[in-house]
UniProtKB/TrEMBL annotation:
Name of the featured protein: MarR family protein
SMART domains from the UniProt entry: HTH_MARR
GO molecular function: DNA-binding transcription factor activity
SUPFAM superfamilies assigned: Winged helix' DNA-binding domain
Residue span, HTH marR-type domain: 27-128
Pfam families on file: MarR_2
InterPro entries in alphabetical order: HTH_MarR-typ, WH-like_DNA-bd_sf, WH_DNA-bd_sf
Amino acid sequence: MTATSDREALGTLLRHVLEVLDGDVAAVYADLDLPDYRPRYSPLVRVLVADGPLAIRDLAARVGVTHSAASQTVAQMARAGLVVLAPGADARQRIVTLTDRARALLPVVEAEWAATTTAMRRLDAELPVPLADELYAVLAALRRRPLRDRIADTGLAPTRPA
């Protein structure tokens, strides 16, 4: 196996960019004396503030993540005392509600969100294309033709046991 350039290891590069961005936002929360608050919590908190208690599936849809990702984040938030879970109308459903602790943090969460939005706009001004615009363009292209199909177009045939 040969060493690959950063341009060939795109998945690694994307994960690294996300780690850098999330790491910096997490450092801001630590500076604000909230070391156990994770950047991934804010989109869920903002939806719960706007829409009230929701089933995990509905929360996932509104945030734009998988049910599994939302469920994992909600579990972390519950351990941090930011949400509570209650049974829904369906036995499989769990309703997520913000705790008083989470509501007390809202001014800091909203201030960080606004500051990060401003900082990202300034970062976008330094880029050839705003980052979110490019990522939405990538998602649209992959919806039109998934990467799996594009890989198959190269002639790579899957090997399956007989």
